[in-house]
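Archive entry: two folds, one per protein. Generate the first.
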Amino acid sequence: MSRQMGDSHRRFLQTMMGSGIIDQQGAKTLYQYCCETHNTQHAPDKLDDFIETINSKLQPMFMQIRKGMSEDNGQQYYALVNMAETDVTRMSSDYADNELELFGKTIELIVGSENGKASSTDILNSADMLTIKKLKKSETEHVLNRLVHDKWLNEKRGEYTLSTRCIIEMEPYIRTMYQDQVKMCHICRNMAFQCQICENPSCGIKIHNPCVARYFKGRSEPRCPACDDFWPHEIPEVRHTRSQSRR
């Protein structure tokens, strides 16, 4: 496929700049729409090549459309990321310094937890320890709502997790800051926060919940893929993507 950037590539990129992140099915649909709109060849199995052409032109600007997996449902996503800055300061145009410090503390709580989650109570308590300027409870809640709205965090029943966008874009920062705490999923080799852990003390591998579902599907007895010990956790069901399931 030609590496020449065309109008279809530009339209795809403009949409990515507006949304920041898009799931794989949405990216495929957008790819087809851009090709049809600008009368260019659409090859359904060449999405990654199409995106690589865009990335080759983004490289001098230290930008990239990067692929990653959702820890929640196992779906693949594409995110437009800034590669020039590798920490939370990249968000300084949208957030105040103390708000960024709160976000950093939230990441620390999530990375250091056993289940990849941080409770609203723990985050509110961490707001009392900000060094720049403390935030009131209402201000902290407002910042957390913004971080969820801007797709940096997910929230469910008062517990916060790192969003897919955050994991993809902040991976270099998280790996550098928490290199002793971050573990990779044994199956997909991506960073694992929300996951199951082998209970064998000499093993302790982590596997994302969606990877657990796929790996153990159809196996009569679940055993750890690393040490072969019995896998005692509940095996979740494989979750289908939108294109595979009916509403």
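Generate the second and append.
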Amino acid sequence: MSPSPQSCLSRQQLLAAIRQMQQLLKGQETRFTEGLRVMKSRLSTLHASLAKAAPEPPAVSCPALQAPADGKKFGTKYLVEHEVHFTCDPGFQLLGSSTRMCQANGSWTGQEPRCAEISECSSSPCQNGGTCLEGLNQYKCLCPQQWTGAACQYQAQTAPPAWSVTDDPAFSRQPRCAQIDQTQHCSCEPGFHMSGTAANGLCQDLNECEVYKREGGPRLCTHTCVNLPGSYRCACPSGYLLLGDGKSCEDIDECALSQDNCTRGTTCINTGGGFQCVSPQCPQPTGNVTYVKTSPFQCERNPCPMESRSCHQAPKTISFHYLPLPSNLLTPTPLFRMATAAAPGRPGPDSLRFGIVGGNNRGHFVMQRSDRQTGELILVQSLKGPQTIHVDVDMSEYLDRVFQAKHVSKITVFVSAYEF
């Protein structure tokens, strides 16, 4: 069945409909252009009025701070919310505030720090009745007659040892004697000394480990000295290997040698004298804030709802870091660096703020800027092991003074029991 002629538009009707649509679009375009012109005009007026307004007051700053005598200062920024940290040289203790922050009223928080000399004798270092004498950054012990050593810790031998000083025959020898000009001359092998009288003399082992412990003697071994008949050897603690020089100890990397027992899902971290199996976890969901693990040592925040301010201010990334350290490491020493990097095609932050935001021993560290895009965590007080310390640092990014994002690094420090 063919369509009815009345169901199709004629050529004239179609042209009229197209002209009508063109007129309608032209009207819409005119109204849109007029709207843009009005918006531009209003923005120009607003810009001009702001430009004529009073200039923004300069950022408040605080008076410059100096390092205390016999101490050091960390931090050179004196603007509001910036921190300055202080430490004392070895032999001195800090009195006052170790950290001061510039306040909005132009004054610093806390008390002015000063470094007071530590009394070396206050810890009673002399043992067995010894008398402590103060010196310049050191002390000396006057020992009773029967004691010796830097801290009066060793018994002094007031008479030559009897020939029966040890029951082990390996530690005694018969002397080698010769008759010269009707006189008997006796001598001992290296590592032994003569004890007793000429008639019943005996070559007794010379305990090098004890001799060289005395004040002024060289340190024979990095860790432990083991006395041997006529000699000695050095030993290292478990988890360390004796080096070719026969005295130094080197840590064994159990992780690299696959000598660990870490289970699947954990990662082996080598430490001084051992290892740790770690498996860092992302924070549990809180409100709109949720995280996903993007690598074994990093979590990233999932996209935030546009209206959730608390979500946008939560850390965008959380990374985990593990640092093995020897005991009593010399300070100050940088331990960790934190830097920013802009994504391709996006403007990077023009301002950064660094800080220590958590941990169980913050007083041993300071966080300071090392250049425009980098901050450093610095150890300023020695750590004695064995112990495990946690410290959390953050980096906040700003663009045109507007907060953009925050990144947190959770650092675990494994301090060895030994200084090597």
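Annotation attached to the second fold: The longest strand covers residues 402-415. The radius of gyration is 38 Å.
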